[in-house]
Amino acid sequence: MKLRRQTPPDPQQLTLQLDFFSPDAQPKAAGDQPAASPSPQPIFQPAPPELQLAPGTPSSQAPSRAKRHIRVGEHVLEYRLLRSKRRSIGFLIDEDGLRITAPRWVPLAEIESAIHEKRRWIFAKLSERRERSARRLQPHMQWRDGATLPYFGEQITLRILAAQAAGVAYSDALRELIVSLPPDASEQQLKDRVQGWLQQEARRVFAERLPVYAARLGVTYRAFALSSATTQWGSCTADGRIRLNWRLIHFALPMIDYVIAHELSHLREMNHSPRFWATVQSIFPEFEAARRVLRASGPDTLPEF
Predict the structure, then answer these.
(1) Domains of the chain: total
(2) The domain containing residue 122 runs over which residues?
């Protein structure tokens, strides 16, 4: 089964991005008040070594004149400061580390105070970025007998059988996906068979879980379809059409349920306001944990088809 050509986005839909939300739009749980910058993550993590400078390192040794340094606890944090017309201080972690965008009228002392306030979030995101970069260096999946791939949050093993008739069968007891192919089959044919089976499983699971959360919310969706998007986990239109990324089948059921609950909640609130997040929390209380797992699992962590 081939990936379908992606259609242009519907301007009337809300989407759930693979990277989820920008640091300036962190989700709020019930009772939270809107803030100009993201809420700190609950666990403090040291900044990655390659993103630190030793104490006393002169700024002239920084790779760019735009780089600044500030001592945060036991670490010296490097960041880039950009001035703009925005009304609040914004934080972004990208390939070059921490970037801060602040209004031209905000003094440096206030910016550095904001850094200290958001230090846990900053160091956690720097650590996530480092781990993601390390995963990119790992070898790509080899499509052969004995290879493994993620399915429902666990690894299953591919078993390839030479046969005249092509087919796919799954053994839950052995955690093996048995793919029958002609002896002269190509690697692409193997990937197509496996992808087709995964998409079939995704459709089955989505069809089972959508009614569960729709009933909890008291909403009715019009239809759902599989998505092959590279930047979205799901989307929802105002008229109740839901699209879910078939690659969610790689993840454990709580992550799948979170995305389903997220999209169905848009049938109550077509936005990402505090009221929306309160709606999500009302039917999926552990949404924060599931969201963190998905945010740390980009396309580079999944098998290539």
Answers:
(1) 1
(2) 39-136
